[in-house]
Specification:
single chain, alpha/beta, D-Maltodextrin-Binding Protein, domain 2, 6-stranded mixed β-sheet, 5-stranded mixed β-sheet, 10 helices, 13 strands
Length: 339
């Protein structure tokens, strides 16, 4: 049996854009049948972890050790400086597996023909909607707001336009009631986050434009930083409409205990995908199959594994339900803001 090689000195990698071992002593070549290719002696995973500095080795070791021991090949981990660097690592064969965000998954599949094998699961979901919030339900709601339970925080929040059912568990599923955005008239103060924010800017801006609103001329933009401040902008009356992830109102319940009454959710955008795992097209198919199964089951393999998953990349697990159409839609949204 080949002995797994544990990661040492991984914190030193954080200062580099990418450091990695190339794969195998028998690399795949063009035209090779990946299903019958001999397995490499090692593979490298590139990721952007949630932890920093001296915690990197501790965070990465359990995952790579688990994979090494079960695959019987060496599995190394390297730290990328940002999500885009994971894509370049895969494209240059410095890494054969990447754990990255949704935009980078799209770029990896489009540019390097990578295979999307897993999607991130956070609190039971692989995607989330951006929410349109308002302090003026008389204008944006077709009927009186109702209360539904946001299960993750076990609190009741207000919704209208039938995007949630009264007295039920809220689902946060979009797209829903986007026609209500047409009621945003000229001069309306709309709180928007940074242009790189999917839930706070990109998906909302596309949704407003598709509703016929010129987001450059028809609205008065109120810049805010962070989802909590997007909610507070509406709560405090600085903006009539704002956008944030589902459900960002939970971030301000301490400072704004009556937020459920004052800030009403009236529409959901298309679902915004979580990130996931992609692999090089050159990896043997049977290796990919085993790797996929092992990573999908990792969070459930032990209490330590579940902790590592959350500490490493903020996840409760991975799923093989990749919902490729959501990643494709995300690519379309990104293209709107490419320039």
């Amino acid at each position: 049996m080949r002995k797994p090689l544990l990661i040492t000195g991984i914190a030193a990698f954080a200062a580099l854009a990418l450091v990695g071992c190339s794969s195998s002593s028998t690399p795949s070549s063009a035209g090779t049948d990946a299903a019958t290719t001999e397995w490499p002696e090692s593979i490298t995973i590139s990721l952007v972890p949630s932890v920093e500095g001296e915690d990197l080795a501790e965070a990465l070791d359990p995952l790579t050790t688990y994979l090494s021991e079960n695959l019987d090949i060496e599995v190394n981990g390297v730290v990328a400086t940002d999500y885009a660097a994971t894509v370049e690592a895969l494209g240059s064969d410095q890494a054969q597996v990447i754990i990255t965000d949704a935009g980078s998954l799209y770029n990896a599949t489009e540019r390097y023909d990578a295979d999307l094998i897993l999607r991130d699961v956070r609190f039971g979901a692989t995607s989330y909607a951006a929410v349109a919030y308002t302090n003026n339900p008389d204008k944006y709601c077709d009927e009186a707001p109702v209360m539904a339970t946001y299960v993750a925080s076990d609190i009741q929040l207000s919704y209208c336009n039938d995007i949630e059912a009264e007295g039920e568990k809220a689902t946060g599923s979009g797209a829903a009631s986007l026609e209500a955005l047409e009621k945003i008239d000229e001069g309306t103060r709309v709180a928007l986050q940074a242009a790189t924010s999917p839930a706070g800017y990109q998906y909302p801006v596309v949704a407003m434009r598709e509703a016929g609103i010129d987001t450059d001329a028809d609205i008065t933009e109120v810049p805010v930083e962070g989802n909590n401040n997007a909610v507070l902008a509406v709560y405090n009356g600085d903006a009539e409409v704002s956008f944030g992830y589902w459900d960002a109102r939970t971030t301000v319940t301490t400072e704004a205990p009556d937020v459920a009454e004052k800030v009403v959710a009236f529409a959901y955008t298309d679902m915004i995908p979580n990130g996931g795992v992609a692999v090089s097209k050159n990896l043997p198919a049977d290796l990919v199959a085993e790797l996929t199964e092992l990573m999908a089951g990792y969070a459930d393999s032990s209490e330590e594994a579940a902790t590592v998953m959350f500490d490493l990349v903020g996840l409760s697990g991975w799923t093989t339900d990749t919902a490729d159409d959501e990643i494709t839609r995300y690519g379309e949204i990104l293209a709107v803001f490419a320039n």
